[in-house]
Amino acid sequence: MMKDEQLETIKKKILSEMVCPLKDSAHNLVFGKGNSDADILFIGEAPGEKEDIQGIPFVGAAGKELNKLLSKINLNLDDVYIANILKYRPPNNRDPSKEEIERHTPYLIDQIKIIHPKVICTLGNYSTKFVLGGFNSDNMKTIGGISTLHGKIIEKELGDLKFSVIPLYHPAAMLYNPRLRTELESDFINIGEFLKTHKKQDSK
Known about the structure:
The chain is an alpha/beta fold and 204 residues long. It has helices at 3-17, 21-25, 49-54, 61-71, 98-115, 125-132, 146-149, 173-176, 180-203; strands at residues 33-34, 40-44, 81-84, 119-123, 154-158, 161-168.
């Protein structure tokens, strides 16, 4: 089965089998989008209002900013894959509960195993703590904040899958704090260099 078909199977499974109160309050499932063969997987926390209405992650201003950042390393949104920890929007964009995270985590892990990215870029504090905490919300309090971790390359494993995690500020943060643009642009340039190095190693 091709990767796109495998992802579609997971999507249908969420729609038909997942039991979660967020399904009742949300407009749409926001599963993920992009290239299923992507080297880079971006992981955010949860869909926002516009994402919920359209059923697509990173629409609106944050998506435009992310695309601008990707263009600096000669990529665009069609070259990467984007997903959230939560597949349904929490009401009023509140923080997700531990139970909600636990219900959604298996589907995110399925996405990661299917896509098999070289790099996972976590967007924002919550996603960073969750992924670096081993996809376990109980471990999040032991992980440092995004201000100290952004741009660092951290090697992680998920079963037999190995990948590099690079924490990033959420692109939406630039809209409220313009000084973060320089930080994000620098981190993206480093991501581009990291990918070039790995491609050279893979071709040997």
